[in-house]
Sequence to fold (306 residues):
Amino acid sequence: MNIVELQQKIIRLKKERDICILAHSYQAKEILEVADFTGDSYKLSVDAGKVSNSRIVMSGVRFMAETCKLLSPEKHIYLPNPDAGCAMADQMDRALISQVKEHYPEHTVVAYINTTAELKTICDVCVTSSSAVEICRKIRNDKLLFIPDCNLGAYVASQIPEKEFKLLSGGCPIHACVNTDDVRKARRLHPDALLLVHPECKPDVCAMADYIGSTSGIMEYAAASPHQEFIIGTEISIQEHLQYRCPGKRFYYLSQKLICPNMKSTTLMDLYRCVAGEGGEEILLDTDTITRARRCIDEMIRLGSA
Ligand code: 13P
Ligand code: SF4
Fold:
């Protein structure tokens, strides 16, 4: 069976089995092509709440599928590859953050959406990379404990100097690998290109960028810009997707280190097996976790649309 035949089977099966497919922009092109909704983690969270199908397949990583379950607890939510975790989401657990909170009783706990549902139960509000600045600005408290990504936290703090941010030393090991030497090398190779980076990159890398934004933010910026060449400082798939979307422009990756093995672990065959009911994992969360974790997702969507 070739890719197109497999895609046709997936499209047929999702209609027969009342399935909606959501796919994060870091997924492979052949997966994005059969998805009903694609985008960054904020857009997918909002889209997940609007779906009317009884089953949702979240092609991405585990915390994204958990977020779908929190938003639609009555639906069946599936992760096509059960091994697709997120190295950042696994860094901090509820026991650790419960202890940290004791030292900061006056702080609002802001959780990047890249956290487990269990950890979200003790946080106040979620943010994503595209919504973090706006939401942190709108939170009434001026004291924020921002977890787990200190790079994203430092970027948000730099945009809202009037607030006090307490950061912990967590983050995305993929984005944090990129350094200023990588930037200098890429700029030497592509002197006319603009540098677009994800805020999970280190502050010294972000300081050298022409634009800082989420995966969707980077894609929209590059597509709309009159510029012709771009160095892409986020997961390598975005450089490839942009090259298809804007064939007249040139896109280069900032570093070959920017490959997320978790995002790459889901294949079109995994998606097919999941849609056929022969593979993947159904996400199950207990009612108490759903009720408590959902509060900070709801608060994110409320502040994001206020
Ligand atoms: P976005 O919020 O840009 O979708 O990023 C999610 C992510 O995992 C980045 O590494
Ligand atoms: Fe997690 Fe980093 Fe992969 Fe995003 S790129 S899913 S934050 S490990």
